[in-house]
Amino acid sequence: MAKSPEQEHPVKAFGWAARDSCGHLSPFNFSRRATGDKDVSFKVLYCGICHSDLHCIKNEWRDSVYPMVPGHEIVGVVTEVGPEVTKFKVGDKVGVGCLVGSCHSCESCVNDLENYCPEWILTYNSKYTDGTITYGGYSDIMVADEHFVVAIPDNLPLDGAAPLLCAGITVYSPLRHYGLGKPGLHVGVVGLGGLGHMAVKFAKAMGVKVTVISTSPSKREEAVGLLGADSFLVSRDQEQMEAAKGTMDGIIDTVSAVHSLLPLIALLKSQGKLVLVGAPEKPLELPAFPLLTGRKVVGGSATGGLKETQEMINFASQHSITSDIEVISMDYVNTAMERLAKADVRYRFVIDIGNSLKSTA
């Protein structure tokens, strides 16, 4: 296969990569394709650290390709656009989330659900149609087809907006799709981490009554006092869980560790919906009888399509929603990964790529 002009003249790039499943990240020189006709190139300023990054660098999902440059919560400023680009110009604030490609022709793509395309191309640890490996946002520059780039409104700070591109859309999409974002409904949020705290913020902005469900009593003040949740349940407290049975219209379950679903199903009203957005390594046990007797639903959701992602960003802009973050330098990333594994972050690490990557080159 003949190389395209973009492949013939690649652009030098620099980032940090994992070389094997030990997960240690270190400086890495590589190439990006040159800006194509429909491409947007931008200088990366910030990149969030998603729990998926930790899973992938350690090959916990058994599909990792090395060397791997992680990162799919990427924001920056446009430096170049291709001649056929219509939505962006040099100087615009933009972002790229979990996807950089799809087939554009399947039923999912036609319905603006590129995130469910069977030929989706992930932002890292995936392959472009030409067979080259995708590299993520722990790097100085990014090149992507304009269809997979979103505009970041000026009133959103780029560091706090970066996690919206994965954590934000991952909880916004199920709230919308499953009809749980309607004023007056009662929604539970399981887990108060990177995803969970965003679920609280979006649900509250939609007018929903929110109860945070956590194994940690110490998170009550964070949930209610800082994030504005209406109530808090300690999932290990049987009296609290018993009193809350049958009170919730839906639950967004953000936990990525193996846990029991039965107590959560019991919290749902008849015809309630339990939506999983976390990705545990091992299968969860799903009891059938509680679903049958209450006509309850257990569903899932994975990120969102590009149209919905832009909608989410615009909603966040209108309601001044950003992630609560801890900004770190690039050379702190391995320590950050160790802390993330222990859930020692409130609530999202964001790498200051623009100010710290060069100093380690």
UniProtKB/TrEMBL annotation:
One of its GO terms (molecular function) is zinc ion binding. It catalyses: (E)-cinnamyl alcohol + NADP(+) = (E)-cinnamaldehyde + NADPH + H(+). Pathway: Aromatic compound metabolism; phenylpropanoid biosynthesis. Its EC number is 1.1.1.195. Gene3D superfamilies: Medium-chain alcohol dehydrogenases, catalytic domain, NAD(P)-binding Rossmann-like Domain. Residues 23-351 form the Enoyl reductase (ER) domain. InterPro entries: ADH-like_C (IPR013149), ADH-like_N (IPR013154), ADH_Zn_CS (IPR002328), CAD-like (IPR047109), ER (IPR020843), GroES-like_sf (IPR011032), NAD(P)-bd_dom_sf (IPR036291). Belongs to the zinc-containing alcohol dehydrogenase family. SMART domains: PKS_ER. It is an enzyme of class 1 (oxidoreductase). Keywords: Lignin biosynthesis, Metal-binding, NADP, Oxidoreductase, Zinc. Involved in lignin biosynthesis. Catalyzes the final step specific for the production of lignin monomers. Catalyzes the NADPH-dependent reduction of coniferaldehyde, 5-hydroxyconiferaldehyde, sinapaldehyde, 4-coumaraldehyde and caffeyl aldehyde to their respective alcohols. GO terms for biological process: lignin biosynthetic process. SUPFAM superfamilies: GroES-like, NAD(P)-binding Rossmann-fold domains. Homodimer. It comes from the Eukaryota. It comes from Punica granatum. This is cinnamyl-alcohol dehydrogenase.
